[in-house]
Amino acid sequence: MTAPAPITSLQNPQIKRLVRLRERRERERSGTILIEGARELARALHAGLAPEAVFSCPALHSPEAAALAPTLGLVTELSRAAFEKVSARENPDGLLALAPTPHPALPEPGPQAVTVVLHGLEKPGNVGAILRSADAAGAHGILVLGRGADPYGPNVIRASQGSVFALPVAVMTEADALAWLSARGFTTFACTPDAPRTYWDAPLTGRVALLLGTEHQGLPVEWRGADHALSIPMQGRGADSLNVATAAALMLYECVRQRRVQGKAI
Amino acid sequence: MTAPAPITSLQNPQIKRLVRLRERRERERSGTILIEGARELARALHAGLAPEAVFSCPALHSPEAAALAPTLGLVTELSRAAFEKVSARENPDGLLALAPTPHPALPEPGPQAVTVVLHGLEKPGNVGAILRSADAAGAHGILVLGRGADPYGPNVIRASQGSVFALPVAVMTEADALAWLSARGFTTFACTPDAPRTYWDAPLTGRVALLLGTEHQGLPVEWRGADHALSIPMQGRGADSLNVATAAALMLYECVRQRRVQGKAI
Questions:
Q1: Tell me: the pLDDT tens digits for B235-252?
Q2: Which residues, including other chains, have CB under 8 Å from residue B82's CB and lie 6 or more apart?
């Protein structure tokens, strides 16, 4: 028995489906996401995601992709032209999978859990960078509110380097998020440039929710209390403000630092 | 007297020159840089840079560009097609200037100066993000060593949002940088994932140089001392390491925090 011939036609229905899935609407309609890249796919598998299909182009394989591909079971081979057609990357590594959209349950938080609440962040690069930092800082999970970047979109997956699969990323309504956090006694801190209190001066131990958004006026009023607004001091001669992903990393690691000073595990 | 007609020909020598200047080699040969965008140009002007020419396309102007353009003196108007040809951006704001490559002198550092040393960093987005954070954290200056991204290239200027003009960014040889730092009593700290000492545990006050690079083996041996290696603790389930720009921001702001705890101005 020989392996089936690779798909070469750009008109092949599977190729067309993969291209359509680059659109958020199509991902939402079908409940399916694209996972491109060996590193990202390895992390999704490690998190227990079961791909419904894997597409591979050996001519494009990175060493990491070449090592992973044989372990993946049923793989459909694509020609180089076909793979480049479906890839969202400039330098694809020749691996792309389809998987059901994750709907991770948020585990019950520990007493020192740090949760990140993203409100309407639009740039996939920022969302991905925040997920990566949140994972590195040991955050408990991510709540995604509002109509920002699709956390399971290809650009967020790439920018997060797969961290989106390593910690629970839950898409919620504002009301549900607020109820979830309130019921568990989280204190919510919003990062705003003009807050009088710096992020070093706030008690960031206990259950903490860090709120990051591009606009705050749409938030429930409970999240706008002045007690809970924090700023990051800026001495800059040029910059208006820190990038939101940088601000997130600083606040996340201040949570870690304060736990460490108090001898508490995150 | 009427204004000269806009340049519409894509074969115009000025258009061709602007396109050539997107290449680093051509910028280095001519000692000229491109500054695109109203925000970036405003910061360059504020830093005292004198553009040798400004190109404008009113049809593309953002409100910020429309406000800045009339203040700029002699401006050459380009048609929309011509401007889009010379722009390096997806959504140009209709302002682009040529200026001599800056060669800022490093001012003598204060007793609490923090200097960032970039060694061979290749991604313009990372270099730009580090410049932005360094500016926000009040760093004294940036030393750029090795053949990484051109700090005055269009993508670094954009990613830094013009911060590259707000603080001194000096391109140096390793030997000159080491001599400069040693003569002034800087302590150099390198960020490496496996260092036993965390960045919270090192005394980061006094004159501090933060070394960031993609590879350390090419550095002078004095910069590789284990005393001076710092790590950022990572609890991540997915991420291999923090992005270098995130690591830079964390270390820069730890310098600020320690100065603040000790009542010292940066």
A1: 876 556 788 999 999 999
A2: B6, B7, B8, B9, B10, B12, B15, B57
Cβ contact B141:B107 at 8 Å: yes
Q: What is the pLDDT of residue A238?
A: 54
| Whole-angstrom distance, CA of residue A233 vs CA of residue A238 | 14
Three-state SS at B249: helix
Q: Which of B136, B200, B233 sits opposite A242 (nearest CB)?
A: B136
Cβ proximity of B22 and B34 under 8 Å: yes
CA angle B245, B133, B94 (to 5 degrees): 100
pLDDT band at A227 (very low <50, low <70, confident <90, very high): low
pLDDT in tens, A160-181: 999 999 999 999 998 899 899 9
For chains A and B, CB pairs below 8 A equal 117
Q: Determine contact, residues B44/B97, Cβ cutoff 8 Å.
A: yes
CATH fold of A114-261, please?
Alpha/beta knot (3.40.1280)
In contact, B115 and B139? CB cutoff 8 Å: yes
Q: What is the maximum span of chain A, computed from C-alpha positions, in angstroms?
A: 72
At position A33, the amino acid (one-letter code) is: I
Residues with Cβ within 8 Å of A84's Cβ and at least 6 positions away in sequence, in order, are A60, A92
Q: How far apart are CA A28 and CA A101, in angstroms?
A: 8
Residue A229's Cα: distance from chain center in Å?
24
B129, B138, B200 ranked by CB distance to A246: nearest: B129
**B189: helix, strand or coil:** strand
Q: How far apart are CA A21 and CA B42, in angstroms?
A: 41
- Selected for mutation to probe chain A from B46, B253, B260 (highest A CB count within 10 Å) is B253
Residues of chain B with CATH 3.30.1330.30: 13-100
User: Is A13-100 a CATH 3.30.1330.30 domain?
Assistant: yes
Q: Are A211 and A119 in contact (CB under 8 A)?
A: yes
CB contact under 8 A, B232 and A238: no
User: Cα(A55)–Cα(B25) distance, rounded to whole angstroms?
Assistant: 40
Taking 90 as the threshold, does the pLDDT of residue B195 lie above it? no
State pLDDT tens for residues A24-75. 999 999 999 999 999 999 999 998 999 999 999 999 999 999 999 999 988 9
The tokens describing A220, both together, are 């429930």
B255 half-sphere exposure, CB direction, 13 A CA radius:
32
CB B163 within 8 A of CB A238: yes
In contact, A151 and A32? CB cutoff 8 Å: no
Which residue ranges does chain A devote to CATH 3.40.1280.10? 114-261
Longest dimension (CA), chain B: 71
Q: Which residues sit opposite B231 in a β-bridge?
A: B198
Minimal C-alpha gap between B138 and chain A (Å):
5
